[in-house]
């Protein structure tokens, strides 16, 4: 995505090092989980940062997103603040994955939501190609240029025009672990893939399954692959594979899948085995790691900072019972993969533009930051707004990366390949989890599906 790969590689390494140091610090801090009331330290307060919003009495808006549970409830609090400030009424519309298909049926029925939260740059491009998406107006653009690095602005552009406001970000290069299980096993936080395998063996020898994998959700498997691939093959190859400029039959993919199989294919390393993992959805993969006292179903679960929302559904406290380390370096540098959700206007109006402007302001993000399990790419959100030291350090590291980060590869792909349950990359990696010995077969399937979705042969 960025042409200056040497600079990016250095920045990725720096970010990983910063994150490693930060997380080590926060692990020692005892993880104060209390809500921080200091929302004003970065100049943004919940009462207003200077973002100017019109009066919208009598205006009704709909916002569609795939968010459920706590994540949805927290976002609704942000919408409530917008209602309070403008007088508009905003309804949250629960969408299904893939959201593009959901929106297609809504639009065909003449009832598109005013704004949709799109989880992939590929989905934004599709919405533009289908002439559904409307460009952002001057007020939203002003907030974006004030609060976002160029890199985060660029990901929301199609053909040079701004369509998306990245309201939510994710650091997808983290492994969360049950501190008690590690302590009982005498296990240490690993910095390299080799050390991760040693840690896993120590945990296994203590009588606890090392890894919980939410294989029922194919996107968790693409995230595993992307972290291994980015660290092992490097940023340049990562960009080429993301754009399908090299084939999935490339030796670099073989190497990454072979590496993944060291965890996925190791007997009794994955909770419930492959069959159990394929029936475990992401939220359960997290909660089962932090319940069960001394005998959780697994000691570690890989996923982004947003796993904290699910940890919050258990009695485990982030920073004490639930700790975290950066995804270990497989190659020369530890990977940092980012994801995110962008607000895109489907029905252009004063109200929809005002909502996009609000979501681009620190005011909106600060509200959700305080509720936990959320990360904003908005650099004007005060770090003190995040509710615990772990989250504060993750947020600091994300902002410190500036323009130099790698966006989730499957989210850059056409949705048919990188974002559809039961199809494309999601399905192919689920099949690989089931049979990690068949590396060549997995590569062939991935390439066939990628070629069909990208409309090229590589």
3D structure, described in words:
The structure is a single chain. The protein is α/β, with parallel strands linked by helices. Helices cover 48% and strands 12% of the residues. The chain is globular and about 65 Å long.
State the secondary-structure class.
alpha/beta
Poorly predicted runs? 1-14, 24-48
Strand content: 5-15%
Average pLDDT, rounded to a whole number, is 89
Give the radius of gyration.
21 Å
Which helices and strands appear, and what pairs or packs with what?
Blueprint: H1 5-28, E1 60-65, H2 69-86, E2 89-94, H3 99-108, E3 115-118, H4 121-129, H5 138-147, H6 150-155, E4 157-158, E5 161-162, E6 164-171, E7 174-178, H7 179-185, H8 193-205, E8 211-212, H9 218-233, H10 235-242, H11 251-264, H12 273-278, H13 282-287, E9 300-302, H14 307-311, E10 322-326, E11 337-345, H15 350-359, H16 362-371, H17 389-400, E12 406-407, H18 409-412, H19 415-418, H20 424-434, H21 439-454
Parallel strand pairs: 1-2, 1-3, 8-9, 11-12
Antiparallel strand pairs: 3-11, 4-5, 6-11, 7-9, 7-10
